[in-house]
Structure formats: C-alpha cells, structure tokens
Design goal:
- Chains A, B, C, D: InterPro entries: 6-PGluconate_DH-like_C_sf, 6DGDH_YqeC, 6PGD_dom2, 6PGDH_C, 6PGDH_NADP-bd, HIBADH-related, NAD(P)-bd_dom_sf, Pgluconate_DH.
- Four copies of one chain form a homotetramer.
- In chain A, helix 10 (about 185-215) crosses helix 14 and helix 11 (about 230-235) packs antiparallel against helix 12 (about 245-255).
- The first copy, chain A, is of the alpha/beta class.
- Chain A has an eight-stranded mixed sheet with strand order 3-2-1-4-5-6-7-8, sandwiched between helices.
- In chain A, helix 5 links the parallel strand 5 and strand 6.
- Chain A is globular and about 75 Å long.
- Chain A has helices at about 10-20, 35-40, 50-55, 70-85, 100-110, 125-130, 140-145, 145-150, 170-175, 185-215, 230-235, 245-255, 270-280, 285-300, 305-320, and strands spanning about 1-5, 25-30, 45, 60-65, 90, 115-120, 130-135, 175-180.
- At the A-D interface, strand 7, helix 9, strand 8, helix 10 and helix 11 of A face strand 7, helix 8, strand 8, helix 9 and helix 10 of D.
Chain lengths: ~325, ~325, ~325, ~325
Amino acid sequence: MQLGIIGLGRMGGNIARRLMRGGHAVVAHDQDAAVTSALIEEGADHAASLAAMVERLEAPRTVWVMLPAGEPTEATINTLAELLAPGDIIIDGGNTFYKDDIRRARALEPKGIHYVDVGTSGGVWGLERGYCMMVGAEREVFDYLDPLFDTLAPGYGDLERTRGRNAPDDRAERGYIHAGPVGAGHYVKMVHNGIEYGLMQAYAEGFELMQSKSSEALPEDERFELNLADVAEVWRRGSVVSSWLLDLTAQALAGDPRLDHYTGAVADSGEGRWTIDAAVEQGVATPVLANALFSRFSSRKENTYANRLLSAMRFGFGGHVEPPK
Amino acid sequence: MQLGIIGLGRMGGNIARRLMRGGHAVVAHDQDAAVTSALIEEGADHAASLAAMVERLEAPRTVWVMLPAGEPTEATINTLAELLAPGDIIIDGGNTFYKDDIRRARALEPKGIHYVDVGTSGGVWGLERGYCMMVGAEREVFDYLDPLFDTLAPGYGDLERTRGRNAPDDRAERGYIHAGPVGAGHYVKMVHNGIEYGLMQAYAEGFELMQSKSSEALPEDERFELNLADVAEVWRRGSVVSSWLLDLTAQALAGDPRLDHYTGAVADSGEGRWTIDAAVEQGVATPVLANALFSRFSSRKENTYANRLLSAMRFGFGGHVEPPK
Amino acid sequence: MQLGIIGLGRMGGNIARRLMRGGHAVVAHDQDAAVTSALIEEGADHAASLAAMVERLEAPRTVWVMLPAGEPTEATINTLAELLAPGDIIIDGGNTFYKDDIRRARALEPKGIHYVDVGTSGGVWGLERGYCMMVGAEREVFDYLDPLFDTLAPGYGDLERTRGRNAPDDRAERGYIHAGPVGAGHYVKMVHNGIEYGLMQAYAEGFELMQSKSSEALPEDERFELNLADVAEVWRRGSVVSSWLLDLTAQALAGDPRLDHYTGAVADSGEGRWTIDAAVEQGVATPVLANALFSRFSSRKENTYANRLLSAMRFGFGGHVEPPK
Amino acid sequence: MQLGIIGLGRMGGNIARRLMRGGHAVVAHDQDAAVTSALIEEGADHAASLAAMVERLEAPRTVWVMLPAGEPTEATINTLAELLAPGDIIIDGGNTFYKDDIRRARALEPKGIHYVDVGTSGGVWGLERGYCMMVGAEREVFDYLDPLFDTLAPGYGDLERTRGRNAPDDRAERGYIHAGPVGAGHYVKMVHNGIEYGLMQAYAEGFELMQSKSSEALPEDERFELNLADVAEVWRRGSVVSSWLLDLTAQALAGDPRLDHYTGAVADSGEGRWTIDAAVEQGVATPVLANALFSRFSSRKENTYANRLLSAMRFGFGGHVEPPK
C-alpha cells in the first residue's frame, strides 16, 4: 500500500522503515528536513509540506501521524482535515488520550474522513522485533489497513502458542488487534502503559530491597552482598517473574550494576496519568498503578511541602527536631 | 503515692513534675545528673543510682522507667530485676514493642515482680494538658496504681461528653484505660501512633496539593494564591477535618507559612513500623498507614536505586533519557 | 440581608434557618413544596418558582443555590442566568467541581451576573455548630456578602486561639475565608474532603487492627480483648489523634461497638475523586488520599475480576487452588 | 550424585523426577506412602522413615527437604540433626523465612552438619522448564552440590543472551546462582515472590479496568466491548508488558475469559508478607509490593470493621446512609 507518514522521530522513522522493507510505498514528512534525508536514501518519497504529501498520495489516501500527543498531533490533524477528501484516512499512531480520539472522529465524520487510533508498543526495538498494535477503528477501515498492520506486527515469531486458544481471528497472535471502535485502541494502550508502570515499580522496589540488604551501612552479619546482575539473569530462566522488562533489567545491570549515572528523577507520560483518571472515573481500585505513578512524581522532587509539614507537626506535638538529611 | 522515675528527658521530667504537683513523692534518677537538678528544686528526691533509688523507696516499690525503647529500657529493667523484691512493680512508660512487654513480664513473674506497660500520648504538651494513657497490666496492679494515672491524666476537661456513652467506668473519660493484660497498653499505643502517621500524611498531602496549586510555575489563570495559614485556621472551626494536629498545623503555618527551614527529611519511630508488621501478621489491609510510613522512608532518601532502575528500564525499551532533576 | 435559597435539603434548610435566626430575610424555594412549609413556619418567604423568587428579591439580588452538584445545580443556574439582572449574585454552596465554577463565572460575566462558590463544611451539625466556609469570589462581592457568612460561620467559639497568629483579617478565626477568585472556594473544599477521606481511613484501619487483635479466631494468648469504645474515648483526651472525627467515632462506638448493622459498603462523592484527579494533574504524590478512595471503591465490590485473575495466574504457575471464601 | 528427598508433593516429586532423569540416585520419603509409589516406579529408592533414609545414603549424605515452611520443615530438620553425621548436608528447598535458615545453620554448626537454603521458582512447570534456583550456602558446599543444581536448572535454553553480559561464572545464565551465605538464597527468593505479587496485581488492576470499561452498566457510547483474551494475546508479542505471567493470563483467558468460577478470594503466603517486613526493617519504601499484599488480604474479607466504621463516621457528620450493597 501507499501511505504518508508525518513525524519521523524514534518511532515514526522506524515504522516507515519497516513498512518500506515490507514493500509499502511511503511518502514521508518531518518538520526537520534533516531527519527525512536518511529515509529518502532508504526509499521514501519526500513531501516538503502536508499539502505536498496529500497531492503525492492517491485517493483514498492514508496518512499516519506519529507525533507527540497533544498540540503537535492536534494541529497536524486539523490541517489534514482541511486538505483531505471524503474516504481518506487519518491514523494517529501516537499516545493520544482516547477521549480526544472520539472527539476528533466525530469532528471528521461530516467530512467523510475516517479516523483510526493505533496504540503502538515496541519502542526502539520495534524495527527489529515488530510493533504490537491495538487499533480503534470502524471495522471496514481496520480491514482495509490490514496489510500495513500485518507488516508492522511481529508475527507469530518463535513464541509458544497459547494452550487452549481457539479463536478464528489469528491477528492477535500475529501482534495486532481490532480493539473496538475509535478510541478503543488508545484506551487499551493506555491501560498497557498503566500496567507497565506497575510492573516496573514492582521490580524497582524488589531490587532496591536487595541493594539495601547489600549496603555497607548494615552490620556485616546482617548483610548479604548480592550480585544483582546475577539475580536478574537467573530470574530470566524458569522463574515466575521472567519478562521482557526483566531482560532489559538484566541487560542494564550487566553493564552497570550500580546504575550510578542516573539521577533518580523518573519522567512520566500522559498514559500513566490517564490510567488513574480512568480508574477514578470508573470506580476501580488501582492502588498499585497509582502508587507506581506517585513514586515517579516523588522521584522528581526533594524537600516537599508535605514532608516539611510533617516535620512541623512533629515539632509541634513532640518537640522533635529532624535529624540532618 | 511514692514512686521512682528513671529517665528525666522531655517526657519523664514532665511526668515527674505533674505527679509532684498532684501530691506524689518522686525519687528521680537520670544518667545525666544535670537534668535531675531542676527536678530536685521542684521537690524531687534524687537517687544517684538504681540501687540508691531502690533503697529510698518503701516496699512495695513502684518504678517508672521512661527511657528510649530498646537497649536503654531493656538494660535498666534487667538491672531493676536484680534489685527489686517480690510485690514490687516496674512500669515501662516508653515506646516499647508490645511483644517485648509480654516477654519481660514472663521473665519477671518467677521473681514476683509485676510489670506494667503504659502507652503515653501527649508529648511536650502533657505537663499542661495531661497525658492520655493506655495501660497493660494485671487488673489489681492497675487498680493499685490508679492514683498515679488519675493525676497524670487530663481529666474530663471542658470537652463535650460523648452522646450515648453509658459506661460504668469513667476512667476513659478522664484520660486513661486499662487496655488489657501486659502488652495491651503498648499495643493500643502502637496503633495510636500508626493512625497518627496516617492522619499526618493526609494533611500533608492535602496541603501539598494546595501549595502546588499556588505555585508560580503554573500559568496565572490556573493558579490560586491560597493562604494556607488561613485555610488551616478556618478548618479548625466547624469543619469535618478539625483536630489537634490541625491546630498544630495552624500554629506552625501562622508563624512560618512556607516552612522553609525544614529539610524535608522526616524521621519515623518504632511504632509506625510495628503497626505495619502487626497488620502483616494479622492479615489486615492498611494501605494508608503503610503508605504514610513509606512516605517517611522516601523523604530521607534521594536518588534511590529503585528510581535509577526505572530510568534504566525506560532507556532500555524506549531510549528515553530522563530530564535533568 | 435579603437572599433567596434554592434547595432546602439537609444542608440548605439549616442554612436558611441559621440565616433567619441571624436576622436575614430568606425567600425559599424547593422542588418539593412539603419541605418548604416547615421553613415558612420559621419565617421564610416562599417562592413557588425561580421566577417568583427573582421577583420577590430586591436588586441587587443574591441567590444561594444549595443543590446536588452536577445536573440539578447546572440546570438551576442556567435558568437563573435568564432571570437575573446585571449586578445580581449567584452563590453555589454545593459540592461543585471547581473548574465548573470557573466556566460558569465566565459564561455569566457578559451578563454582569456575579458568581460565587462556597465550599461548606459542617454537615448536619452546622445549624448548631455553624458552617465552616471557603469562598471563591471577586473580592468586592465577598465583602458585600460578608454579613451572610458572618452569621453562618461558627465564630470564635471557645477554641483556644492559635499561638503566633497575627493576621489582620480575623475572618478565618471566625470560620470563613476568601480563598481566592471564583473556583478557589470549591478547590479548597475539594482538598478538605480529600483529606477527610484520608483521616477517616487512617482511623478505620487502626480500629480494624485492634478489632482483629480482639478476634476469637486468635489463640487466647495472642488475643487482647480491647474495648474499642473505651479506646476511642480515651484518645479524645490529650492524645495526638484527637479530632472531631474521633469524637464521632467515640459516639458511634458508645452506642454500638460492633457496628453490626452496617453492610461495609461505603459511598464516595465527587470531591474525593476530583482530589485525585487534581493530584494527577498537578503531579503531586497523594498515596494516602488515593488509597483511601480506592478502599471505598473496593468496599462496594465482591469477587472482582482483578482478584479472579490473580487466582487464575496462581493456578497457572503453581496449580494453586484458592481456599473457599 | 546420590541424595535423599523428603516431601514428594507437587514440587518435591518433580524435583526427584528431574534429578533421576539427569542420572542422579534418589532415596525418597513421604509421610504419605501412596505418593512415593509412583516415584519408585520411576526408579527411586524408597525409605520408610528418616532413619531408613539416612542409613541408605552414603556419607557424606545430602538430604533435600521439600516440605511446607514452618513446623513441618522445622521438625524434620530437627530429626535429621539427630540422625546425620559431621560433613553431611541438609538442603531446605522450601519457602523458609531466611532468618530461620540462619538460626538453623548456627544450631547445626557444632555438629558439623552443613545447611543449604535453596529458593526454588518454577512451580508445576519446573519438571518441564527446569527450576530457577537461588542458593544460600558456604561456597564449597555450593560447589560440591553443583551437579544437582546443574540438572535441575533450565540451562541456557533458546533465550537470547543478555547483551553486555561478561561474567566469568555462567551459572546464572543456566538458571542457578550462589546468592551468598546461608539465608541469602531464601532472601532473594522472598524478594522474588514479593515482586511476583506486585507484577500480578499490576496486570489484575489493568484487566479489571478494561473489564469495567466493557461493562453493560455503562451507557453504550462510553463502553468498549474489549476482548480481553485477545488483548492478553496481542501483548505477548512485541509489547513492553510481555512476560511469563502474561502468557499464563493469555492461557487462562483463552479458555475462560470471564473467570467466573473463581470466588475472588486470593491466598497469600509467607514470602509476600516477609518482603514487607523486610522493607519495614530496612526502611525501604515498597508501596507497590505492600498494596499488592493488602489487596489479597481484602480479597478474602467482606464487610470489614474498617468499612463499617467509615459508614458510622459518615452517618455521624453528614447523616449519610449508605446505599444497599
């Protein structure tokens, strides 16, 4: 198939590459022309502007927008809405809030433009491993785009088949699903990322415990000098906690078991937050997902007002003076 | 009554004072003789050693130990166990783990020495407001010591009586209870402190939210410049969250609304920890009490291994580089 | 002053009463005419409709809306917007989301109608104790309405003055504050309720621990048969955890220490949820407030999908079959 | 090698099998003789008693105890201590608390008996996949037992090697490590299980969110009818949350997407609890691991005292009556 791709950063560039390697024709655009040149060498057609891209594509046109969620994506889609024609398709492959997808689809409907949200997991490894995709779309539009998803997805790979699985549609086993109508793709991806936060925090807390037990601050007879790189490695084999995140942990610790060059500040993105908003809206208890998010908030702060107030109360009732930090 | 008091720090000194003002005779001992001299002027008899104290007391002797929990208390009680006679009473008024109380009482039983655990709340305000006491003891021993507790307790005060309360024993209304057998006093005090951690953290998080909403980092039209001293003050009157901790908060914020001289490191003590151990042992979910404790742990750390590992994983799967702290 | 009050439920009716007792003239309206008749006997003027109320009020008119947040309040304010004139004032005293206040004030601005949000705490006790109020309004409008707030507020009472407090404006000490511009009143009230959830949960967890320690399921030598009504009572006097919520706990336990007639399902309202949304939006860690909310979510559910999935995983990796509930 | 195995349940029986298939000679004992007969057919030598087993083994003897932690293991080791001779080795492969390991090793030392703790992960899949083992032992004892661990472990398998790993000892890559001195094996296994709880709860919360979003209680335009079996399946391929626990989830949902036959009560075992005790002891914040444990506690309870107390307070301050459950 032919499609346009807007935004050729870490994710967009590799999506373009994987599509081209799979035989699709890509018209590429990025604000930063330098970024595009590498792709041109690999076979992409270059469009200097959105208008140029739309001209270069044959109707019905498919445009994959792979930009930061929020303003950049919103502005681009608004511009495309003016340029595209009935029957054309806009795919938002970024990390958009699912309610924004629903709003946009409704706004595009009178123009006859179809909107598709693709939650995409795979990060920097996607070019090699393939992308795991959760798609929100009208059923026919999803089917029409199937060749693209088929190319991007990992496929069966050498993963053991799920025992007892007996579903007529094998696309989930090849790495992509039609999650439901517009919004469903990003909803599922949002929850995916919420879970990701929880998983990461579970490992982080466990390794912190083991590192603390190895601390020279402990009396020698209470201390275990654990080799955390070996622990991560051994858990990869046959243990209940084996996972891709553990593989990455083993990899990080193999090279640098002390992780000293990190500052301890951990960013969070929209999806972790929206997951908690959804939990609050839906009345679902998510203590683990919420606390994982809160841990990241705290990681970026020192000396919070909350903590100072605790000290002030402790002084107030007990005359306690905190020890120096 | 006559009694000995060992440990004349912030708590012990004021307990001695309040008892003397109530007409009791105090024989006082502290490792630091300087501390004792002020009390002597106020009428205390001074004992230079535990042996001297025991000699000075008439049988059956009552000795109130008011020392830091753990080693100092343990060592003193072991020494007293050698010096005291059958029928004598040791009171541990400190913050001892309740299982240690039970162990000690069992060890003293063959010697005929009675053991009493008194959970004491009131902090630096106790001299003035009286002490709230939860006592673990044999029933007869508790009754024998009643005059001491009666003097130390706040009494009815001008607090409104609890509607519907119709208990024959009014000691709870005067500020002390016989919680149960040995250990029960410190158990109840332990839970009291666990709750205290939760309450404090609830206020701290709420005030942090309001402070953050007042932050100059926010665009002006999203910001409220809240006067947190006024908020604390107004909540003292007629609101659902009024409490003594809120009174202390109002007091702290009246003098220093920014709380800038605190470092944000908040200490914790045994009881907050034992409460969570008890919850784990008893299979009771205590997410609020546990998270309040964990917040204090985090307050004293920067750049934890857990957070660095999160960053390492984020780099591993997404090539994310954390922003500077 | 003269004012209209719409909504004469538990809160609105008592607000009307307290205002009339303070010498203000009230024009009252409620969908349910029966509710109004009691107030008429106490001196209220009755308006059968919003239009009738607006006619009955002298310009500039003040109308206090005291209805459930959301649709009922929104619809009433929309109707009032059509009936009122420039210079008139609408007060929303309910539990509205603060961003809705800001939106409404902006919508009313072109009509010259002023909007005021009043966060009101005090519950069923307000008639007697007075209401604690946090007001969001233009400064001049707040000052104009001062006589109303002055009447409704608890006043100084016999509460000890806050040491070190030296603020020129004593309204906080009398029970109401100008929190800031429109929205600020409900924002502060929202955080108030968020804190309330945290405080309540802290007590609940602590009492659960003590009840569990009194359980006959425990071997006798591990059990304390704690009198929880006495514990609550004794903590009211001189302890660090004394509060109004503890007073209410003591009252509930005095009458019914087992609390057997409650089902264990606990409702939550908008403010507890919005507090967590605000925390997520502002990037503030609120583990205690969030977990308190989640505990309520869980209290209303049995046999969740989450728990069933845990069992399914446990069966999957270990062949574990859960014991019967 | 020759060794004795005591306890032939789910774990012990398969460990015996895997060892025999690897060429080791097993003397087997179980309280329940019926259990042993299957193993005898597969080549095990049967010992009717511990004494018989000890006689049957050649010195230096190795005895692997694979019993429930606590009393059964403790009693067996005490008996073995009387029967064994200097130079013999006791292996505890169960889920023992690591401080018990240390205590036992100290008690056995004067007798010249070596003690080894093996944290074993792999559950019912171990026979097929191999067991992941974390061993606490004196270095020479660990090396002496190496052939056993080598047989039991999964080996390299077809797992991708960890990039950047460059450790001289490849045993971690084959599925077992010498974690450290006695106790270190079970310590690492304890943390492993703590992490396991956190991971499981993260998935559980996420799937609950998606199930709730599919609920017919929602208005149709807010609902996504998500196919959770497909979601689990698609995430197995290329997503950040892929893991063995996700594989098991996909398997469970393939057969029974509603999981209706589970009651929602989820058991917990010692290790999840000890992990939190360790966190409290070491002063490490583990909100995710603790909340995962607390969720299990709550899953087994209805109508807790904590929740009833919340309702009582709500009635007290607001006259709120909870809606029926």
